Fold:
Amino acid sequence: MKKSIIGFLLCILFCAFFLPLFTLAQEVQKQQVEIPQQEEHEKIIPSPQDIKESTGIFVFIGWIWLVIFILIYILRLKIKEVDRLYQIKYFSSKED
Amino acid sequence: MTIKDLVSGWRTWLEARSDLSSIEQFLRKKTVPQHKHSIWYYTGSAILLFFTIQVITGFMLVFYYKPTLEEANQSVAQIMTEIPLGWIIRSVHTWSAFFMIAIVFIHLLSIWITKAYRKPRELTWMSGVFLLFVTLGFGFTGYLLPWDDLSLSATKVGTDIPRSIPVVGAWVTKFLRGGDDVTGDTLTRFFGFHVCILPVLIFVLLAVHVYLIQKHGMSLPLPVELRKEKVKEIPFWPNFVYREMIVWLILVGVLFTVAIFLPPSLDKAADLMAPAPEGIKPEWYFLFLFQLLKIFPAHVLFISGDTIAVILILLGVIFFFFLPLIDNKPARVKGKVIAVIAYVFIVFAVAMTVWSLH
Amino acid sequence: METMKLKHSLFTRRQFLNGLFGGWLGALLASLMYPIVKFIFPPVREPDQVVLPFSEFKDMAPNEAKNFPWGSKPGILKRNDDGSYTAFVAVCTHLDCNVSYLAEQRKFFCACHEGWYDEEGKNIQGPPPRPLRRLIVSIEGEDLIIKREDLQ
Structure:
């Protein structure tokens, strides 16, 4: 019981180590809001120019994640197959 | 003649000339233990994944980046605005660097805590420590390349710190800067480190590290080994690799999502004559060291505070490097103390990092 | 209606699964390759038009030629006998060497492989396969404007 509490607290602390990553992300977000006030050559903040680009970005990310989930599904099937083959010792005596 | 016949024909041709099948056999025979702490086994290949992404995006950035004082900032601006989707490539490069360094730390801590560096794996650990420094070197040298105000100041501070090392300090700083000050020569030197010297070093070190891992096999965490029970093992190829692929796919998805929605910006070109901007800080992975230096007073007796801090850090690094030799009785009290030191280090680093952000 | 019966499966379940995996992996890699390829082949950097101060060219003698920058390539502006101007991209259509105008012979000459063009830019001798690329010249007040031919 004690071990799991300590482990849990340490996990929280460990995640806090990556806090700067999020503050950096927040900074970037704030900067993106500031675009109208800043001169062009002062600071360049990449952002989509028009609705076509924004939609394109969302479609791209959505497509990538869809393909990733499909691949993970197929991989799980393959893992089940390959684990079962190992279990029944399919490869042990005859070298495939 | 079907495609299958063609492919198997080529494989036979290749096999007769290269003996590649021995590699396949080795990978099939190699096993990975499955136990409570097996999750940490995935960190190694995750690092390699991000490193590969760094190499590919780095190749692409180097097509357009111009490493001179006059053109560096402008060439990065060009990549972000004129070159199609350049901002994505740069963003992926930046975020993949963050992730790679983060997972390097996780990998290191997991090895420390599970004591995977025990005999006969001491050399694997030591090559790993060198790999850590080369990785941090990549991060440090890459940070200067956009040549904007913040990165210039961070480099000035960062290359000034070794000066506090007794005896050799000034030489180290001169070596890093290519002179006494941070100038265009520093940029050229850092670029040389980043695209040429450090890549060669990392490939050599990786070869040694990966060879040693294959030679010794996967280590078991000490408690599991001491229990002496039979641990379930799965073949590395294809069982473990398929599982690793799932991890890689998720990491790639997260990387691209973050890179596209949170791309880094570019400040205007650095002015060597301007006063330092406010809020200079190094990248997040150096923040805890940065804070450590800040808390030391300017002078302690007759020695400068910086020198003491740097010596402390160096002693820490030496302890860290020789950890497998120091921890020669891992199952006893000494071993437990060393494991606790890992947790103390985590708390310390996190606390210092959070403190430095205020 | 009779359905066709196959004696054996076209592929095993394992082959089917592997095929699916390979296919979708290919799709993922292709999607990731798209930004990479667009990045590596940047768009052509030729300008649509170039605006030059006419004062630099108005004192040109007939049958004289002067170079001007056309993006990253050289352009050549020739004053004709009747006072008008013709402009070409001064790049040989054979293997991209820069050409020059030889006023005495009234021909454009490429030194790399001895290619010759007449004063209208037509390829008359040597290896060049096509005439020199012509550009459209117009004068608007103080400016000499040179435009791409296909932008009408």
In short: Residues 10 and 16 of chain A are 10 Å apart (CA to CA). The first strand of chain A starts at residue 43 and ends at 44.
